[in-house]
Specification:
There is one protein chain. The protein is an all-alpha fold and about 240 residues long. The chain has 2 domains: about 140 residues; about 80 residues, Cd81 Antigen, Extracellular Domain, Chain: A, CATH 1.10.1450.10. About 70% of the residues lie in helices and about 0% in strands. It is built from 7 helices and no strands. It is elongated and about 80 Å long.
């Protein structure tokens, strides 16, 4: 039994260290979200349907979730509480399954999602320049300046907002008093295409990040279930 107890202690330490790192990672992500909210508060979402969806809010929500799950895991490891260990396992498993389902949905309905995203972004253009939507306005200006693009599918997307000959300043290659009405001074490439191309160029980095997340989650599932079984075995031995 001493060997079994030693094994449990070893798993307990590993489980605690893993969840401590997990929790600290959540703190870091939450911190990034808060930093984005404070420093980039005017850079929000481009989405018409999800106005509250922004990088800052996503980071804060994800960071908070990781912190809560990590805390449950740490507490379960320290106290050797089967209920907490099982809760940690189930929460992590639920997130893991949701990620897989989400990935499959994106693959299966890629074209539909692609089409919906473009139409949703085009709807968002109607809110550009309005006082109550300064965040969206700033977001579009930043994206168009950063990616040197204009509109969602084409610079003509802006014509529904302005008129048939005018685009925002951020569409101009170089700002001038007349650049908004001079097509020869506009970026010609669509922003949706440019952003997709940028994502494609950075797919290896995104893939590596995704693999790291999966490995961390699998390790968490293995550690928590193994410790749960060890605690259960120890409890049965002492009964």
């Amino acid at each position: 039994m001493s060997m079994s107890r030693g094994c449990l202690l070893c798993i307990k330490i590993k489980m605690f260290i893993f969840n401590l790192i997990f929790w600290l990672g959540g703190c870091g992500i939450l911190g990034v979200g808060i930093w984005l909210a404070v420093t980039q508060g005017k850079f929000a979402t481009l989405s018409y349907s999800f106005p509250s969806l922004s990088a800052a809010s996503l980071f804060m929500v994800i960071g908070s979730m990781i912190m809560v799950i990590g805390f449950i895991g740490c507490l379960g490891a320290v106290t050797e509480n089967r209920c907490l260990l099982l809760t940690f396992f189930l929460l992590l498993l639920l997130i893991f399954l949701l990620e897989i389902i989400g990935m499959l949905m994106v693959i299966i309905y890629r074209e539909e999602i692609d089409s919906y995203a473009q139409e949703d972004l085009k709807k968002g253009l109607k809110l550009f320049g309005k006082e109550e939507n300064t965040e969206l306005t700033n977001a579009w200006n930043i994206v168009q300046t950063m990616f040197r693009c204009c509109g969602v599918k084409n610079y003509t997307d802006w014509f529904q907002l302005k008129n048939e000959t005018e685009v925002p300043d951020s569409c101009c290659l170089e700002y001038s008093p007349t650049c908004q009405t001079d097509p020869s001074t506009w970026w010609k490439e669509p922003c949706y295409k440019k952003v997709k191309y940028w994502l494609g160029e950075n797919i290896s980095a995104l893939g590596a990040f995704a693999i790291c997340i999966v490995v961390i989650q699998v390790l968490g599932l293995v550690f928590s279930m193994f410790m749960y079984c060890q605690v259960l075995r120890a409890e049965k031995y002492y009964e």
